[in-house]
TrEMBL record:
Transmembrane domains' residue ranges: none
Species this protein is from: Modestobacter italicus (strain DSM 44449 / CECT 9708 / BC 501)
CDD domains documented for this protein: STAS_anti-anti-sigma_factors
Entry-linked Pfam families: STAS (PF01740)
InterPro entries with a match to the protein in the record: STAS_dom, STAS_dom_sf
Domain STAS as annotated: residue spans: 14-111
Protein name per Swiss-Prot or TrEMBL: Anti-sigma factor antagonist
Amino acid sequence: METSPGPHQLELPGAIHLVEEDGELVLRLSGEVDSLVVDDWHATAPTGSSAAVAVDVSATTFLDCRGLRLLVRETEPTRRSGRVPELRHPSRAVRRVVEMTGAAALFATVA
């Protein structure tokens, strides 16, 4: 299962995709994940899907507060089920945002 970005007229600086890996959903971010990218995700995201058990940010170069809020919200059902979602391969910039906001405790970081 993979979702693709919506039909924006302008090229977005980043992207968010929901992919299936080993039978579980992973949120995959790339580029600069800012308000425009998050708005696009909300406009095109599948409804009623299961929770993401991991967030792959290995290709993410920038993450603003709306992007971080998206990560926290999209993985909340996983935390409620007793699991800790993974934050996979964050760059220094992404790791800094996550740590500075106190959100690091919500994820198991995989370097």
